[in-house]
Amino acid sequence: MNNFQEKKRRRSKTPRVCNNEENMEKLVHKEIEKRRRQEMASLYASLRSLLPLEFIQGKRSTSDQVKGAVNYIDYLQRNIKDINSKRDDLVLLSGRSFRSSNEQEWNEISNHVVIRPCLVGIEIVLSILQTPFSSVLQVLREHGLYVLGYICSSVNDRLIHTLQAEVNDLALIDLADLKDTLTLMK
Fold first, then answer.
1. Which positions fall inside the BHLH domain (predicted)?
2. Model pTM score
């Protein structure tokens, strides 16, 4: 027999004497740890139940669940930023601002245009006054844009037009010129 096996054998033969107080401390510690593990398991299950299916894929480790939750929170924060940006654009386009009365009058009689990149190319949000919409489409065609989607809504008695246009090469399109052209249309 080797040295390690002898020591192991000796340990198992000699019973360790523990007093009642040590046993109680161990039992209390064991019970506290058991409750902590149960609470953590319950909390992870709650977290998992709050995540959409695309962020949970099968039975995963708790660290993967936490990563999924972090990714979901990041996703929600990006969505909040996008929605806030769109809300700000709509507020701008609706002509509601807290400027002087002369600027307010100018806001109410001018076109407003916001252009930003999107997945398919660019998104154009505009509020035009006394301009036929066909003229807007003509300007877009002249700039090499192809309209893929269109939504129109009414905000404070103004029509807000939202277009998504496909762009083959964004570098070939002068977005500032496009914005100026759409803003100055009559």
1. 24-76
2. 0.44
CA gyration radius, the chain: 33
Per-residue pLDDT tens over the stretch 58-91 = 677 888 888 888 888 888 899 888 888 888 777 7
Reply yes or no on whether the pLDDT at 130 is more than 80.
Answer: no
Which structural domain range is residue 66 located in?
23-79
In a domain, residue 10? The reply is no
- Long-range contacts of the stretch 56-59 (C-beta < 8 A, 24+): none
| CATH code, domain with 34 | 4.10.280
Would you say residue 16 lies in a domain?
Answer: no
Q: Supply the pLDDT for residue 31.
A: 94
Residue 152: which H helix or E strand, with range? strand 146-155
Q: Please indicate, yes or no, if residue 50 is contained in any of the structural domains.
A: yes
DSSP category for residue 26: H
Count CB-CB contacts under 10 A for residue 127. Answer: 22
